[in-house]
Amino acid sequence: MGHKHLRQAAKELKKIRKWLEKLDLDDSAVEQITSLLEDIADHGGDTERILRRILDEEQEQRAILEDERELLQAILAELRTGAPPAEDIGDELEDFIGERVEITVNFGPVAGTVIAVRNDYVVLEDALGRFVYVPFASIQAIGRLD
Amino acid sequence: MDFAATLEEQLRRLIGETIQVATDNNLLEGQLTDVEDGTIELLAGAGGYERETRTVLIPLAAVNFIREL
């Protein structure tokens, strides 16, 4: 290999290194590719063979990423079909503001007038004028009284 | 009446007040002393005739409801 070729090869190697940094490969893959690049630098030998191995390595990584993507999509689909987040009940509770309700929680029923609905809780005013705060997460049922 | 956006914030405003906290199968009463990182701290009567108090920590996630007394 002439000097010109060597310089060009070194340039190419630099580019490949930069490109590898940009890719989100795991540590062992980067290590493997780096050692391959060092092989090239040390021996300047069978470049094509080594580059092909790098290419294979990249393809393998792509396949792994693709598998991971599929797995994440499956998880996401499962999450979407699950129960809606508890905050959704807040929208329903807004309609009850000013009305007397009975909210059932694990402890038992709590009755009062709906005073306010916030991000994660509802405020009731009980018969004695005391404020009762009920987190959405603990609500099991809401019933309109009167 | 103005209430905070989240329950944790609202409870922070109530520090010093006497409250009643219901969990799945317990009803605790006492002075709210601290609210931090999803946990509320209550100075509750220990029960019995003595005027003894004890500090009780309750995770917000375990709260069924809280009543201002």
Query: What global shape of chain A is seen?
Result: rod-shaped
Compressed to H and E, one letter per element, the order of chain A equals HHHHEEEEE
Strand order of the largest sheet of chain A: 4-3-2-1-5
Described by strand count, sense and barrel closure, the largest sheet of chain A is: 5 strands, antiparallel
Tally of discrete structural domains of chain B: 1
Please describe the structure with a list of short key phrases separated by commas or semicolons.
heterodimer; A: 146 residues; alpha+beta; SH3 type barrels; 2 domains; 5-stranded antiparallel beta sheet; rod-shaped; B: 69 residues; mainly beta; 51% strand; globular
Short description:
Chain A has helices at residues 3-22, 27-43, 47-81, 88-94, and strands at 100-105, 108-117, 121-125, 131-135, 141-144. Chain A is of the alpha+beta class.
Walk me through what this model shows.
The complex is a heterodimer of chains A (146) and B (69). Chain A is α+β, with helices and mostly antiparallel strands and 146 residues long. Chain A folds into 2 domains: 3-81, no CATH class; 88-144, SH3 type barrels (Roll), CATH 2.30.30.100. Chain A contains 4 helices and 5 strands; from the N terminus they run ααααβββββ. Chain A has helices spanning 3-22, 27-43, 47-81, 88-94; strands at residues 100-105, 108-117, 121-125, 131-135, 141-144. Chain A has a 5-stranded antiparallel beta sheet. In chain A, helix 1 runs antiparallel to helix 2 and helix 2 packs antiparallel against helix 3. The N and C termini of chain A lie far apart (94 Å). By secondary structure, chain B is mainly beta. Chain B has one domain (7-68): SH3 type barrels (Roll), CATH 2.30.30. Chain B is built from 1 helix and 5 strands. Chain B has one helix at 7-13, and strands spanning 18-23, 26-36, 39-45, 53-59, 65-68. The longest helix of chain B has 7 residues, at 7-13. The mean pLDDT of chain B is 92. The A-B interface holds A 103, 105-108, 110, 115-116, 118-121, 123, 126, 130-135, 137-138 and B 1, 3-7, 10-11, 22-25, 27, 60-61, 63-69.
